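residues and backbone:
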Amino acid sequence: MSPWILASGALVPALAIAAAIGWRGRIGQRLAAYQLAGSITVILLTLLTFATDQPSLTDLALTLVLLTLPGTLLLAVFVERWL
């Protein structure tokens, strides 16, 4: 097993915890968990790029980086306005 696969596997529990908090936490915790899950996912995709030697996953990670912050801001506006 390559070290890239082991590092990717080590991030999966952290992503699961962020998803659980995003599912069941209070509103402020959900926003923070959403941002944390996006960051962990970007790192996970980058590690999988090195593990599988697929450069196309880097494009997906960069796209996720560019969309995570506006998505969080839109979610915050929705929460403030409607909930």
